[in-house]
């Protein structure tokens, strides 16, 4: 089995079901093929490009008549074609042309680390190899190493670039994407997410036109608005059929993913750090590493593509003890009390939560400084003893004595103008010199490009973790970055700001992960505003959305599942009427929707009536007995809640199958519905654990499960089945 194969001037990368082939012509690296697995053979005929009427460039080789029609693997700016460049280097003479030719090819076992950046990783038993294609511009002596790591079993290839200035003068990178893949158009649709606060990751799908498609964020974080991934799927591709290629960036800052279509029917599919306001100076000998791009191909539709991403993210991006350990069932008190609580209230909540079977109690915003509303105290990370009179340590001991872990909220990257920290360090905020800094939610943002500020952030959290037995942190981030400037950086470094900020953030998270390996950190950014592979490297679960309405959540979780595993999606049962939408739905439905690998509650446990208490106890027991299915099972989307009358999902792990269905729209005359299950063994006899009824896998796959449509009228009714 060849994972990476070099045959003459061809490079072939193989995963279990896919092949990625490149060619080298006169030192120029071009793309040949990415799709279903090919035999290890000479695919040279595919690499041949035909000459059109454009002879304005000198011939590169008989196979490659001109570069504007070449499928360049990492196109530099200025080749003359309608190609989105992957790299643009400003030379010291003011020109921005470069011509990178291959100088060396290195194949190694395993995978190198990406300095200071989150990335996929290989474990000893993995079939993983890395290809480095070294290229160089002979005039400037700038070198670009293109890295490709092949995760054979995962059907995933990752890419990144390292750009090194070996010339005699400084150069400036105006653009440095992580990768580009060029191929002939096969009638592709572009699939991406759009969203907003409390409406994250809605799916959009439209044909790729010559006007191209771009999704990007320039607000400092990956954003609610545009998640850093893009999928190209054949127009006819469905959940189960057709070809689809997905790229997702392991990055939490400004990003850009685009697909362009040129006059020769060539698609350039590229992704990386947004080039807007990006200027990175490479002094002599300096190197720049791009974030990693995670790429997968499926010949069997979108669900397989999603499962490939789920599997690599869950197993080879997420790290630490909680990668594999059962995630605790948590109860977060935010919607229970907002800023209005004290230690007595928390103790009562702990008593009550313990009785329900909750494993982790989380105190959200408001436990520190003078924080009684969102106007003050970010940065003053010491306990508010007016509220928590007994002190954090004693409170934690109390909660622990009830058999619960305690977690607390931080918003470590922020500072309130009304805070002790601001009085001491006004120079630590992000602001443009001579202008008033911009507030969002009354707060300013700390300058994480400054290492001293990063140390402060680390120490603030580490002090609490060292002096208490806090075992969970909710790491929130509640504003967009705007009007950027730094008292720490020099004027010529300001174009590096956004990326330096992200590197500072990753540095702090890395130190905390290393020094407190048993603490679970959950990501959050006004809900799911920074839900990306970069954050998942440090925080194995992320608060999916501030919208806890079960009905709206079906579409948010559905869209999130395109790339991200269910174990990464925090989903909580909250009270009704729902605080965001005012909608009331049953306990059943709220629980059926929240069933992900990181399940919990967002309510006041002291205000639940007896019958709901019994329901919750039973449900937590059911969840705990089957957590492995929700955390590690394969996830199938059986309907699309944005258009279908039902939201339906399925998990399968070993012989256990769990199916959830939520009726979104009821009709006067409901249709006769069957749910066709997926991924079962056709020959197994499955037993419905509630009714004892038995079905062959082939029956459930080919005919399906009957949804008793007329059984009870009304929207938002839910059904949950388990088969063994
Ligand atoms: C936004 C988060 O998404 C909420 O869950 C909550 O933690 C608030 N911030 C607290 O200010």
Characterise the protein shown here:
The protein is α+β, with helices and mostly antiparallel strands. Among the domains are: 4-316, alpha-galactosidase from lactobacil brevis (Beta-galactosidase, Chain A, domain 5, Distorted Sandwich), CATH 2.70.98; 646-723, Sandwich (Immunoglobulin-like), CATH 2.60.40.1180. Helices cover 20% and strands 30% of the residues. The protein has 14 helices and 38 strands. Strands 6, 7, 8, 9, 11, 12, 14, 15, 19 and 20 form a ten-stranded antiparallel β-sheet that branches. Helix 8 packs parallel to helix 9 (497-515). The longest helix is centred in the C-terminal third of the chain and has 23 residues, at 610-632. The two termini are 36 Å apart. Bound molecules: (2R,3S,4R,5S)-2-(hydroxymethyl)piperidine-3,4,5-triol.
- Judged by helices, strands and strand pairing, the structural class is alpha+beta
Bound molecules: (2R,3S,4R,5S)-2-(hydroxymethyl)piperidine-3,4,5-triol
- What oligomeric state do the depicted chains represent? single chain
The coarse overall form would be: globular
Percent range of helical residues: 10-25%
- Please give the number of β-strands: 38
Q: Describe the biggest sheet?
A: 10 strands, antiparallel
Low-confidence stretches: none
Mean pLDDT over all positions: 95
Which architecture name of the domain at 4-316 does CATH use? Distorted Sandwich
Assign the CATH superfamily of the domain at 4-316: alpha-galactosidase from lactobacil brevis
Radius of gyration: 26 Å
Strand content: 25-35%
| Cα distance spanning the termini | 36 Å
Number of H- or I-type helical stretches: 14
Regarding CATH, which class of the domain at 4-316?
Answer: Mainly Beta
Return the CATH topology of the domain at 4-316. Beta-galactosidase, Chain A, domain 5
């Amino acid at each position: 089995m060849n994972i990476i194969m070099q045959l003459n001037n061809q490079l072939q990368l193989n995963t279990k079901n896919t092949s990625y082939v490149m060619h080298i012509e006169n030192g120029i690296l071009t793309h040949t093929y990415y799709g279903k697995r090919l035999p290890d053979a000479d695919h040279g005929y595919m690499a041949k490009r035909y000459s059109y009427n454009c002879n304005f460039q000198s011939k590169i080789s008989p196979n490659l008549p001109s570069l504007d029609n070449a499928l360049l693997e990492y196109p530099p700016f200025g080749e003359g074609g309608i190609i989105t460049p992957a790299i643009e280097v400003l030379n010291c003479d003011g020109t921005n042309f470069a011509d990178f030719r291959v100088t060396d090819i290195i194949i190694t076992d395993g995978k190198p680390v990406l300095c200071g950046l989150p990335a996929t990783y290989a474990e000893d038993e993995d079939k993983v190899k890395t290809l480095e294609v070294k290229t160089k511009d002979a005039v400037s002596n700038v070198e670009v190493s293109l890295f490709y790591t092949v995760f054979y079993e995962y059907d995933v290839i990752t890419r990144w670039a390292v750009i090194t200035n070996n010339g005699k003068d400084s150069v400036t990178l105006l653009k440095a994407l992580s990768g580009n893949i060029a191929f002939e158009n096969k009638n592709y649709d572009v699939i991406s997410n759009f969203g907003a606060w409390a409406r994250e990751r809605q799916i959009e799908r439209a044909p790729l036109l010559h006007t191209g498609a771009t999704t990007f964020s320039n607000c400092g974080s990956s954003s609610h608005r545009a998640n850093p991934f893009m999928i190209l799927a054949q127009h006819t591709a469905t959940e189960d059929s057709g070809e689809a290629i997905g790229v997702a960036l392991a990055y939490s800052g400004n990003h850009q993913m685009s697909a362009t279509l040129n006059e020769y029917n060539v698609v350039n599919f590229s992704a990386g750090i947004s080039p807007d306001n990006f200027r990175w100076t490479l002094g002599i000998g300096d190197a720049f590493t791009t974030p990693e791009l995670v790429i997968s191909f499926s010949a069997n539709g979108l669900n397989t593509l999603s499962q490939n991403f789920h599997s690599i993210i869950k197993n080879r991006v997420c790290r630490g003890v909680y990668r594999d350990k059962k995630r605790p069932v948590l109860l977060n008190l935010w919607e229970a009390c907002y800023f209005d609580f004290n230690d007595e209230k928390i103790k009562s909540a702990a008593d009550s939560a313990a009785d329900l079977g909750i494993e982790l109690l989380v105190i959200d915003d408001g436990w520190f400084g003078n924080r009684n509303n969102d106007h003050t105290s970010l940065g003053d990370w010491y306990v508010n003893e007016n509220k928590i009179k007994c002190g954090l340590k004693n409170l934690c001991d109390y909660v622990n004595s009830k058999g619960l872990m305690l977690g607390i909220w931080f918003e470590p990257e922020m500072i309130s103008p009304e805070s002790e920290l601001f009085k001491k360090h006004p120079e630590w905020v992000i602001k443009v010199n001579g202008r008033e800094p911009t507030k969002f939610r009354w707060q300013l943002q700390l300058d994480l490009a400054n290492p001293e500020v990063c140390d402060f952030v680390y120490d603030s959290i580490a002090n609490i973790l060292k002096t208490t037995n806090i075992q969970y942190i909710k790491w929130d981030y509640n504003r967009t970055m705007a009007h950027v400037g730094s008292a720490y950086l020099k004027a010529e470094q300001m174009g590096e700001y956004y990326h330096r900020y992200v590197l500072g953030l990753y540095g702090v998270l890395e130190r905390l992960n290393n020094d407190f390996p048993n603490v679970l950190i959950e990501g959050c950014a006004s809900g799911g505003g920074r839900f990306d592979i970069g954050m998942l490297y440090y925080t194995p679960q992320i608060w999916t959305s501030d919208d806890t309405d079960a009905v709206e959540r079906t579409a948010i979780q559905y869209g999130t599942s395109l790339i991200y595993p269910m174990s990464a999606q925090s989903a909580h049962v909250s009270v009704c009427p729902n605080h965001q939408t005012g909608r009331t739905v049953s306990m059943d439905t709220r629980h059926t929707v929240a069933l992900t690998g990181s399940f919990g509650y967002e309510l006041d446990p002291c205000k639940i009536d007896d019958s709901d208490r019994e329901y919750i106890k039973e449900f937590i027991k059911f969840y705990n007995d089957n957590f492995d299915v929700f955390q590690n099972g394969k996830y199938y989307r059986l309907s699309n809640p944005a258009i279908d009358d039902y939201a339906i999902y399925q998990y399968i792990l070993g012989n256990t199958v769990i199916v959830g269905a939520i009726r979104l729209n009821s009709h006067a005359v409901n249709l006769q519905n069957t749910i066709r299950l997926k991924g079962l063994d056709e020959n197994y006899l499955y037993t419905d654990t509630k009714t004892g009824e038995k079905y062959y896998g082939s029956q459930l796959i080919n005919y399906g499960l009957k949804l008793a449509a007329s059984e009870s009228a009304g929207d938002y009714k839910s059904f949950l089945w388990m088969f063994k």
